[in-house]
Specification:
Length: 272
């Protein structure tokens, strides 16, 4: 009997790639999706107007800089479901949309059938009520940052901004009550090269982490037996508001000052 897997995720291209890879590997999948639109709407509905406006700002910035289009191209598939609609219509996919990952209905869905492994990617912080519906030790998160140094949002950008190229990585870790605080299972780092920026590095590391996770799940689906290491007490939590226009400008100007002279006709130094 094939292992049963539940995915709790948002609706980005990399989340769809993960869902399709899990379906391909295990033949069936339960998916609970909290869309980016619903995440933003929840901020506004609950009166978190500052966070809501920063979310809108970063969505616009990603479109203007071409990052959104790049991510769609990078994670595009040539086989299997290529859209969320197509995935939801797969006969062996149990698909659920939710306005919040902490909606009471999510707990009911999870209690409706126990999975061997639960994978989280891109959702808001999962509360204790939903976590209580998942067997302890079976849930992992794919975090787009090098833990414990970079928690929260825009971790690749700030690692580049601070010149910490050894901290450009995605972390697979166990889910706990804290934000990005569970024991570390593995890190998947990338090295910047000519033409890279925070988006290209992020996408590369996320794909490496996804591919590694799916392959390991196929070998050992009982994630409770996987080795993991407690996080050290260091690092910082980065929020949407931390990457404002002035920080973005300083980052690009700083990259300009650090450029090395290049021969006439050589490629331009990448802006990261």
């Amino acid at each position: 009997m094939m292992p049963r897997v539940t995915l709790l995720c948002s609706d980005g291209p990399h989340h769809l790639y993960l869902a399709a890879e899990l379906l391909k590997a295990f033949g069936s999948l339960r998916v609970i999706v909290e869309s980016g639109h619903d995440q933003a709407a929840s901020l506004r509905r609950n009166g978190h107007y500052r966070a809501y406006l920063w979310t809108l700002y970063h969505g616009l910035r990603r479109k203007l800089f071409g990052y959104e289009a790049y991510r769609k191209r990078y994670f595009a598939r040539t086989e299997g479901p290529r859209t969320w609609t197509a995935l939801s219509q797969e006969p062996d996919v149990e698909f659920h949309d939710t306005p919040s990952i902490n909606d009471p209905l999510v707990g009911q869905i999870l209690r409706g059938g126990v999975s061997d492994a639960y994978v989280v990617m891109g959702t808001k912080k999962i509360g204790s009520a939903v976590l209580s519906a998942i067997p302890a030790g079976r849930i992992l998160n794919i975090h787009g940052g090098y833990l414990p140094d970079y928690k929260g949002n825009h971790c690749f950008f700030f690692a580049l901004h601070e010149g910490r190229h050894d901290r450009l990585g995605t972390t697979i870790h166990r889910v706990s009550a804290g934000l990005d605080a569970g024991d570390i299972v593995s890190r998947h780092c990338v090295q910047p090269a000519e033409g890279d920026n925070s988006e290209t590095l992020y996408s590369r590391a996320e794909k490496a982490a996804i591919d590694h996770l799916v392959a390991r799940l196929r070998r050992t689906p009982d994630v409770s037996t996987w080795d993991s290491t407690p996080q050290e007490a260091r690092g910082r939590l980065y929020r949407m508001r931390d990457r404002g226009p002035l920080v973005e400008l300083a980052h690009h100007l700083g990259r300009g000052w650090r450029r090395r002279p290049v021969a006439r006709g050589a490629g331009k130094e990448p802006v990261r």
